[in-house]
Amino acid sequence: MLALVLPFVRLLRRPMVGRFDARVWIVRTATVAGLAGGVIMLVVSVALPVFHFPVPTGRYGIGTVTYHWVDQARPELFTADPAAHRELMAQVWYPATPSRDAERAPYIADADAVTSASARLAGPPPFLFSHFRHVTTNAVAGVPLDDVDIATPQASSLTGLRN
Fold it and tell me: Nearest to residue 103, comparing CAs of 67, 129, 64?
C-alpha cells in the first residue's frame, strides 16, 4: 500500500521551478487526498465486509416476522424513566413458499439502534457495527406459512447480550 502512495507524495514534494503555481499545488494535493481516501475505503471494506448468507437449498423458502411486545404490568429496571415498561423484541423465522423476486428482509430490523446499543455494551466505536444495516437475509418478511407438517422439528433460540 505504501508503494501506491509514495509516488504521489513525491509529486507534492517536487521542487517548483520559477513562481509558485497554486493550481498545480491544489491539483497535486487533491490527487493525493483522493488516492488516500480510496485506499482508506478499500481497507475499511476489507476489514468490515457486508456478508451474505448462503442461499437455502431445501424445498422451503424462509419467512420472517418481527414482534415488539411491551409488558405494561412490569416496570423497566434499567432506565431512569419511571414510566418505562419492559419491552421485548422477537423475530420468528419459519418455512414459507420460496419466492425469488420478493424483497429480502434485513438481518437486523432496526440496525442503527441495535448496533449503537451493542457498541455501548461491548466497548468498540459504533462505526465498527454500522455495516450490519446493509446485510440482508434470504427470508421474506410477512409471507404466509408454507403447508408444512406440524411434526417437523422446531428450533428456538433465546439469546441475550450478556450472560
Answer: 64
d(CA 18, CA 41): 37
**144, 97 contact by CB (below 8 A):** yes
The cell for 103 is 424483497
User: 113 and 69, same structural domain?
Assistant: yes
Q: Are residues 136 and 65 in the same domain?
A: yes
Classified as helix, coil or strand, 47 is: helix
Residue 123 falls inside a structural domain: yes
Closest CA to 57 of 138, 149, 154: 138
Q: What is the pTM of this model?
A: 0.58
Walking along the chain (163 residues) 10 residues at a time, the average pLDDT comes out as 58 61 84 87 75 85 89 89 89 85 86 77 77 86 78 61 49
| Domains contained in the chain, number | 2
